[in-house]
Task: structure prediction
Amino acid sequence: MPPKNALLLRRLVLLSLLLLLPETVHAHAEKGTIGGFVSGFVHPLTGLDHIAAMVAVGLWGAYLGAPAMWLLPVIFPMVMALGGALGVLGVPMPGVETGIALSGVALGLMVAFAARPPLWIAAVLVGFFAIFHGHAHGKEMPISANAMTYAVGFVMATGLLHLSGIALGLLVKWPWGRVMVRATGGAIAAVGFGFLFGFIQG
Amino acid sequence: MTAPGMGDFISGLLHPWMTPTHLIILLALGLWLGQRVPLRLGLPLQVFVPGAAVALALTNLHWVAVVPPPLLVAMALVAGAVVALEVRLPASAGAVMLGAAALAIGLDSGVETGTPWAIFKTLLGTWVSLGLGLINAGYYVSLATERQKKWISIGVRVAGSWIVAVSLMMLAFAWRKAHPG
Result:
C-alpha cells in the first residue's frame, strides 16, 4: 500500500474510533449552560436507532461521492431541526418510532446494495427521515435545559455522527473497504429491522 | 450588562461574545462575508459599523424598545440559511441583512446603570467588538475559502446549516416557553 494511502487509512481508523465515544459518556445534568450542552450532545448518542441512521447518512453520502457526500449532511440538520421544532411545540406526528426504525432499514439497505439514485431522490429520502429523528429528539427535550446550548450540543453530536459515517464510507477507495462499508450498511438495516419488529428495544 | 471586576470598556468588548444570540448572528454574518471571495468589506464598513453605532447610541434614549430574543434568533436563521444554501444575495439585500442585524444587536446591548462616562466606555467597547468581530470572522473564513478547496466551502455551508438548525430549535423553545402547556 502506498504511504499516502496508509496514512489516510490510519486517519480513517482513528476517526471511526469516535463511534465508540457514546459508550464513555454518562452525563445526566440537564440544568444550566453546560448541562444544556451535555444533555443536547448526549441525546442523539443514547439511542442505537438514531446512531445507526445518522452513521448511515454519512456512509451513503460517502458512497455516492461528491456532491452528495456533503449535501446530505447539510440538508439533514436543517430538516431534523424542523422536525425537532414540531416535537418541541407538541405537534403530533404519527409513527415516529416506526419512521426512525424504517430510516435505519432504508438507509442501511441503500448502502448495502450500493444504491445510486439521482441526488434529489437521496436528498428527499434523507430529509423525510430526518423529520422523524428531529421530532423524537424535540419531544424528549428536557424543559429545564438551556435552549441554546442544548440545541448546539444536539446539532454538533448529529453532525459528528455523520462525519463518522463519512469517515467510514471513505474506505470505499479500497476493494476490501467497499465490502466492509456495504456490510456495515447491512448491519444498520438489520438494526433497523430489529427496532421495527421489536427485537431490539430503545 | 457590565461584568463586575472588569473595566467598563473590556466589559463592553466581551459583551457580544458572551451573549449567545449576538454571537450566533455575528458567526453567521462572518461566514456569509467570508463565503463570497474575494472578500468585500464595503458593506460591513458602510452599513454594519455605522448601524451598530447608531443603535448603541439610541440605547441611551429610553424610548427604544427591548429587542425580543426570538427576533435576534430569526436573524441568525436567515443569515445561516443564506450561508447553507450559498445564496448569491444582491448588494441591497445584503445591506438590509447587515443593517437589521446591526440595529437589533446594538439596541439589545444597552447599559442599564452606571455613570454616563462608564456607559459610554461600555458601549464603545461593544461597538469596537462588533465591528472588529464581524470583519475578523469574515476575514478568517475568506482566508480558508480563497484556497479554492472544495471541502472548505462545503464546511462553511455545513456550519451555516448547523446555525439554521440551532436557530430553529431555539425559536421552538422560545415559543414553548411563552405558551406553556
Summary: The radius of gyration of chain B is 17 Å. Residues 116-145 of chain B form the longest helix (30 residues). Chain B touches chain A through 27 residues (CB under 8 Å).
